[in-house]
Specification:
The protein contains two helices and 27 strands. The chain is mainly beta and about 300 residues long.
């Protein structure tokens, strides 16, 4: 199990993006003094604000006017870097962002994507020190029937742990789709932390929040669709010497969304997507019953 605590991407780090701000093509409108009704949305300070009380002519900006405005989400350009939400950035293909983190990072993760290909380059000054293209088309075939008739699907999540950890690297990411808009829930970079070895029998589960309403008259049922939240449970074997570090990591990740990868770099495994969670830990007890190693019972939930 490897976890990536993502570093916050500030507007200063995002040196270039093909997503406009505000994204007027997707309904974003920049805030300016005027007349507003409840529910009106305006963009200010990289965020989308919703009017909660009708008003006219207020000079205070939404971020300084809590009586009239409520923060709703990040603007489309910055949504992919929101560490607390999974609201996606949606953009015309190709979507390209350039990030100068200003610190060392050695891992990158893409989650909740809709794209055919992702490319990553890292430049150090005028020298390109890393380049990779990732084909996101996922079409496993087990028969000739599958080959001719199976629907083409796309991998929603991808991760790389091999970025060169230089302090002054400039990262360029490009996502492309030949026939539709590109979508990405979160783009995360950071320094990876090794937790331990996932043991046999991990579980891929989900909480389904859809509702079923049954009629007491005729027995009919009405379904109200809602989200299904992925979660996993796994037992992890940890060397005794790593327990103090894992305890510090647990404290640091309390109520922090991180990227949890149960199969490390085995991205070609059919189980890889099942054990990749962009979310929080619910439980992380460390059992000290063994002399030379400990066991972690880790429960994760996606956000």
């Amino acid at each position: 199990m490897i976890v990536i605590p993502p570093i916050p991407i500030t507007p200063a780090m995002l040196t270039s993006s093909t997503v406009p701000y505000p994204d007027t093509a997707r309904g974003e409108v920049a805030w300016a003094t005027g007349t507003f009704s409840v529910g009106d949305e305006r963009v200010h300070a990289n965020k989308v604000w919703s009017c909660v009380q009708a008003h006219t002519g207020h000079a205070a900006t939404p971020d300084a006017d809590a009586a009239y405005w409520l923060f709703k989400r990040y603007a489309n350009k910055f949504a992919m870097f929101d560490t607390l939400r999974s609201t996606p950035t949606v953009a015309t293909s190709p979507l390209t962002v350039v990030i100068a983190p200003g610190e060392r990072v050695d891992a990158i993760a893409f989650t909740k994507m809709q794209a055919h290909q992702a490319s990553i380059t890292i430049d150090q000054g005028a020298t390109r020190i890393y380049s990779e293209s990732i084909n996101l088309v996922d079409r496993p075939t087990r028969s000739w029937y599958d080959y001719f008739f199976q629907k083409i699907t796309l991998r929603e999540n991808e991760i790389r742990f091999n970025l060169p950890p230089v302090s002054n690297g400039v990262i360029t990411v490009t996502l492309t789709h030949p026939t539709a808009d590109v979508q990405i829930g979160n783009l995360d970079i950071g320094m990876q932390e090794y937790v331990g070895r996932v043991q046999f029998a991990p579980t891929d589960d989900a909480d389904n929040y859809s509702k079923i309403t049954r009629s007491v008259i005729d027995g009919s049922a009405t379904l109200t669709p809602s989200v299904s939240v992925p979660k996993t449970s796994q037992t992890i074997l940890v060397d005794k010497a790593d327990v103090p570090r894992i305890r510090r990591l647990r404290d640091r990740l309390n109520a922090v969304r991180a990227i949890w990868c149960g199969l490390d770099e085995k991205s070609t495994s059919p189980y890889f997507q099942s054990l990749l969670i962009s979310g929080i830990y619910r439980r992380m007890p460390i059992n000290l019953k063994h002399l030379n190693h400990a066991e972690i019972s880790l429960e994760l939930e996606e956000i």
